[in-house]
Amino acid sequence: MAMFDEDAVRPAEYRRFERPLPEWFRGAGLGIFVHWGPYSVPAWAEPTGELGAVSREEWYTHNPYAEWYANTIRIEGSPARAHHEAAHGGAPYDDFLDQWRAEDFDPDEVLAVVAATGARYFIPTTKHHDGVTLWDAPGTEGRNTVARGPRRDLIGAFADATRRAGLRFGVYYSGGLDWHFSDLPPIDHDGAPAPDDLPYAEYAHDHLVDLVERYRPDILWGDIRWPDAGIAPGPKSLAHAFDVFYDAAQDGVVNDRWGESHWDFRTSEYVHGTAVEVGEAWENTRGIGLSFGHNRNEASEHLLSADDAVRLLVDVVSRGGNLLLNIGLDAAGRIPDLQRQTLDGIAAWTARHGHAVFNARPVDRFAPSDGPWLRWTRSGDAVHAVVDARGPIRLPDPAGLLDEKTAQITGTPVSATRVGDAILVETTEAEGPVAISFRVRT
Predict the structure, then answer these.
(1) Are 46 and 295 in contact (CB under 8 A)?
(2) How far are the Cα atoms of 186, 200, 231, 272 from residue 259, in angstroms, in the given order?
(3) Does the global pTM surpass 0.90?
C-alpha cells in the first residue's frame, strides 16, 4: 500500500468533467481488498503499528507492511534484512515468485467468504510495488504469474469468481512505484525515489488499458501517484487511460491516488489521511491486521476482532464513507485462519444487522458516543442506533424524533420507553454491537 505523498494532489493539465457518484458505490458500505504476491512466500514484517501512528523515521526500517518486503530488506540495518539473510540466505526477491505456487487457490471459495460478509465490491492487487503482475501484462517479459510461479491468470480468476458471486469487481494498480522496472534505491525516511520517466509511464499506461479491456472493472484503485511523464494529455497518458475506463464502465469510479486533480472518491488508510473523510465520496482502507500482505508474525492481538471490525464498519458508514477491509492470502491461496474468523464474524453480524450499514447514510441530528459506544445510520424512513452495550440502554433523543413504539431488532419488536429526552431499550443480545431500529415521527 501507500506510504508517501499519497495525499499530495498535483495541479493537473487534465480535469475530467464532473460526474455524479454512482448510487451503487454511495450505498456500498463495505468492500474487500486482497493483497497477494511473491511477498506472501516470506510473509514477514514487524507488526510495529498502524500507518499514521508510527513515525516516518521508524516506518520504513521497521515496516509492518509485508508487501513492502522487497524494499525493507534493502535497507541497511533493518530487522527484515537480518531476517532475510538468516532465513533465506539473502536470496534474490524473484526467487519468491518461483516459489509461489498458489496450490490451494480456489477463487470461488475465497469469494464465497467475501460475499457472506455482505461486501458489495472486491478489489485484488494486480501489480504491487514489486512490479510482479498477476496476469500476463504487456511488456513484463515473463515476470508475471502466468509465466512463473502460480502459472495462472489470477486476475481473470478473481474477476470471474467475483461476478459469479454477484459483487462489483475492481483492480488495484501501483502506478507510482515499480522497484523492478526502475532499479531505484530503497525508500527510507530520507526520501522516496519513484520512476517518473516516459518508458515507465507508457508501460504503466499499457497495463491499465489492458486491465480495462480484459476484465471490465468497475473500480480503478491507483496507489502512490502516477509518473510525471504520463501526466500531460496524450495517446499514452493517464487521461487517456481514464477515458478508456469510463467508456467501458459508465458507472465506474476511480480513487484519488493517481496524483491528478480528478477522482470519484477520496481515500484514507488506517489512521493516516483522515482529513479526507468528509462528504459523500470517501473510503477508509486497512488490513484486518497491521499489514495488507499476509504476515506470519501477526497474532490475534495485532488483528481486528469481528466486533472491532463491525464497529469500524458502522463508524465509517455513520460518517458517510465505505470501508475497504483487506485480507492477505497466504502463498497457497488460503485466507489465514485468524483473518477468516474476523470475516465470518462480520458475516454473522451483517446477516442480522446489515440493514444498518448497506444502503445506509449518516444521520445529522443524532450524536455518536463512546460511552457506551453508539453510532447512528438511516435507511429510508428508519433510523438505526447501533450500540455496543447490554441490558437497559439509554438512547438520547432530545428532539423527540424517534417513535419508541416502533423499536425493533432484526424485525422483532423490543421494549422501549421514553424517559425525558431519551429512550430506554431492553436488549438481550449476547455479544457485540446491536442495531436498534426506529421509525421517525411524522
Answers:
(1) no
(2) 21, 16, 9, 17
(3) yes
Output the nine-digit C-alpha cell for 294: 499476509
What digits encode the pLDDT tens for the residues 173-205?
A: 999 999 999 888 999 987 778 899 999 999 999
Per the CB < 8 A criterion, the answer to whether 186 and 208 are in contact is: no
- The residue with greater pLDDT, 436 or 442, is 436
Question: What residues contact residue 20 under an 8 Å CB cut-off, 6+ apart?
Answer: none
CA 57 distance to own-chain centroid = 25
3-class state of residue 241 by DSSP: helix
Rounded CA-CA distance 196/190 in Å is 18
In 3D, which of 121, 162, 117, 165 has the Cα closest to residue 354?
117
Give 413-432 pLDDT, tens digit per residue.
999 999 999 999 988 766 68
Q: What band does 92 get if pLDDT is binned at 50, 70 and 90? A: very high
Give backbone dihedrals phi and psi of 186, rounded to 5 degrees, phi first: -65, 155
**Degrees, nearest 5: CA angle 170-171-172:** 130
Q: Would you tell me how many other CB atoms lie within 10 Å of the CB of residue 345?
A: 20
**Sheet of 253-254, strands arranged across:** 253-254, 219-223, 168-174, 121-127, 30-35, 322-328, 282-287, 266-269
> Helix, strand or coil for residue 3?
coil
Q: How is residue 442 written as a grid cell?
A: 411524522
Which of 102-116, 268-282, 285-299, 326-340 comes out lowest in average pLDDT?
268-282
Strands annotated E in 345-433: 361-362, 369-370, 373-379, 382-388, 391-396, 402-409, 412-413, 416-419, 422-427
Amino acid sitting at position 310: V
Residue 73: C-alpha distances to residues 60, 82, 185, 188, 326 (Å): 10, 8, 12, 11, 23
Using CA atoms, how far residue 247 sits from 8, 244, 255, 377, in Å, is 27, 5, 17, 34
